[in-house]
Amino acid sequence: MRRKPKIVLAPMNFANMPIQIVRELKRRGFEAEHLQYTAGEGHKFGYELDREINIRELDGRINSNISALTEYIERDFDIFHFWNKSFFFETYYQEYTGFDIPLIKARNKRIAYRFTGFDARLPSRDLDVNPYSPFRYGYEHPYDEDLQKRYLAFLEEYVDQFLVQDPEMAQFSPGNPKIIPRALNLSEWPFVGIGKTDRPLVVHAPSNGPVKGTKFVQAAVDTLQSEGLAFDYKSIEGMAHKDAIEWYKRADIIVDQLLIGATGVLTLEAWALGKPCVVHLREDLFKPFYKTGELPVANANPDTITNVLRDLIKDHDWRAHLSREGRKTVEEFHDIAKVIDDYIETYDAMISAEPVRPTGTGDIEYLRCQAELARDLIIFNADDSIQHSGNPLRRLDGDEKLAVLQKVLPAFLVWPIRKLVNLRRACFRIRDRTRRRVQGFLARRGAHGPRTP
């Protein structure tokens, strides 16, 4: 009988989702671990961690990345389930991000890759399919889209199974992604429900305000307060998750996101607690997904949030209906005790199938791009005045150099400098592409000989 595969999930604990999977896998008898890089201070939202590698103790990101890769190869783990990035990464897809993946595959291991949001939801594509895309409302994509496209093409050459959490993300994933819903351990989320009140408490908890549409929520709240509508409002930002949960339990209405068109983790948490949730869900995607003609939310977008929120505050019966239906939905579709079967089935299928091997040249083109970045990436490295061996900046990687910038420069200067670095990189790419095209033209012209008059 074949042994159960050994599984590592890494390198980030997004919204506490990976750790839920690891805990349930352990309950089912799997050797499973979750790994997170930290600066020695735990998760920024206070989520429990399974294993952590302290970047500071290992003298920087590169040593930490290599340490993680080496350890799990030596311990003979079978499946490397990556979330957002692999072991070896730099936040902005630079400095050979992802080049541990071919090394893992060369050892006959399997790779699952789970996208989490804007790692696959590229601006050009989101603007095509989403009328309420955050990019329409001033959200600045933090990454170079061309570099991301090259990275996604690179992944296609090696990843055995792409995973996404819902049909909205499936639009953006390369390959043939499998949808496995987000999940909660419902024993940790008992039903609370709502009471009857003349002054409902509305709670909004944006992890990223421009993405969640927080300015539209605030504008709606301001309008309704100016009308004299009786309600209280609490915006939660930067709070430890366990403290935020206490506010969710007290809430009569929870507002999630208004722009993406999909459930957030907060939607699931609201459903589990039996709290009415205001969120923007694309009906064309989520009615089929939840096999229903009526989504269990107060569906709102920037154009409708004021009216929807007003009606929900006034209507206790509607709130009570959403409270019941939300809990039913999370029990049917998002219970980790059920969802884990999808993961186990996926892992088993990956082990049984032949590993994915490169068939194109996406990885080679990505290598070219990373080599060009290594030559031209950091603006510091172009300045001979700081290249002498005594300068401590020379030993820092890109993220660490940016951290130094943030400490010594006013905050308003850091973003323009990053923009200048990206612009400089784009100029180098244009130069190199033009050079290659000219060289190709001259080679073809030479092959056919000079033109005769």
Automatic annotation (TrEMBL):
<protein>
    <recommendedName>
        <fullName>Glycosyltransferase family 4 protein</fullName>
    </recommendedName>
</protein>
